[in-house]
Design a protein that fits this description.
This protein is an alpha+beta fold. The protein is built from 7 helices and 15 strands. It has 3 domains: 55 residues, no CATH class; 60 residues, no CATH class; 154 residues, no CATH class. A hairpin with a 6-residue loop joins strand 12 and strand 13. The protein is elongated, with a radius of gyration of 35 Å.
């Protein structure tokens, strides 16, 4: 074969290949809706063009998409009321470490035979735990030396409540107080400050004795390591109440704390046990969820929406 013929064969082969693999724009009809979809066909391969390729040429988007992150419950309610319809749904996650609410604004239409929707337009809010709640829960049931315990009490003394006869305690807390000996067993903020100062004074002392009384109080006697004199008794109350919000900027909840101590190696360690914080948390969460339900008029499901 001469050079001219060879070049001709190569050119013909190239033309055939180019004709076969040359890209062309085609339309494909979606069977269920009859919508025409743009595609690129190259040989036997077909690639569909995503609608987002044409967003820059549209006067408005085809659908509402995205999740708005709200920083307050008020904002979540306002945003939901702005975009909701009759089929929007609220999903509430009652996790005690990361509680949250997600509103799916374009949720599926109600009913098994109703039209499905994308569920891609959402409003979400993650409940921020209050600084007070985090501080008290972090130290709950943690034994502390006298100096550390005294410092903690002084730092958080503003959270401790004065208890009055008509203060409206919950039924559970009132029953606990009665079981432990009545309201006279509850320590006031002043009483706890006296305890903290007494512990600081006796920080370098040796415990001589610790006596539990039937009233729920304890008396701790110290012996100074510097002199032979005995220190004055320090009364340890059996119970105190704190008023703290569960969520940031939320309402205050009264939480009972049992005051504990034990002798260890000639010294004494203190701690407190918060009573039934699970109930307090659940009540605060349910109140918030009920508010969203009332102010938006939407159904609330406990759980998470479809991904």
């Amino acid at each position: 074969m001469d050079t001219i013929n060879a070049d001709g064969v190569i050119a013909q082969a190239r033309d055939l290949v180019e004709d076969y693999v040359k890209a062309e724009i085609v339309t494909v009809v979606e069977p269920a809706t009859g919508i025409e979809v743009a595609a690129v066909r190259k040989g036997n391969d077909v690639s569909f063009l995503p609608p987002s390729m044409f967003d820059a040429y549209r006067t408005q988007p085809l659908h509402r998409l995205g999740s708005a992150v709200m920083l307050s419950l008020d904002s979540l309610i306002e945003h939901t009321n702005r975009f909701k319809d009759d089929d929007s749904v609220v999903f509430a996650d009652d996790s005690r470490t990361a509680p949250s609410i997600i509103v799916v604004l374009d949720y599926h239409r109600a009913g098994a035979a109703a039209d499905p929707r994308f569920g891609k337009h959402r409003s979400q809010f993650t409940f921020p735990l209050s600084d007070e709640w985090k501080a008290w829960v972090a130290k709950n049931a943690e034994p502390m030396g006298m100096a550390d315990f005294a410092a903690f009490l002084e730092e958080r003394i503003i959270d401790v409540l004065y208890v009055e006869d008509d203060d409206g305690l919950s039924e559970d807390v009132a029953r606990l107080i009665d079981t432990l000996g009545g309201r006279e067993t509850i320590a006031t903020p002043n009483k706890l400050m006296e305890l903290a100062r007494g512990l600081q004074i006796n920080e370098a002392a040796v415990v001589q004795e610790a006596v539990n009384l039937a009233s729920g109080e304890g008396i701790v006697r110290f012996q100074s390591t510097h002199t032979d004199e005995h220190g004055a008794p320090v009364k340890v109350p059996g119970l105190f109440l704190i008023g703290i919000p569960v969520f940031r900027n939320g309402p205050l909840y009264r939480v009972a704390a049992r005051l504990r101590y034990r002798k260890a190696g000639g010294k004494i360690v203190f701690w407190y046990d918060l009573w039934r914080t699970d109930r307090t948390f659940d009540h605060a969460f349910q109140e918030a969820v009920e508010r969203v339900k009332t102010d938006t008029g939407l159904p609330v499901l406990i759980g998470k929406p479809e991904a």
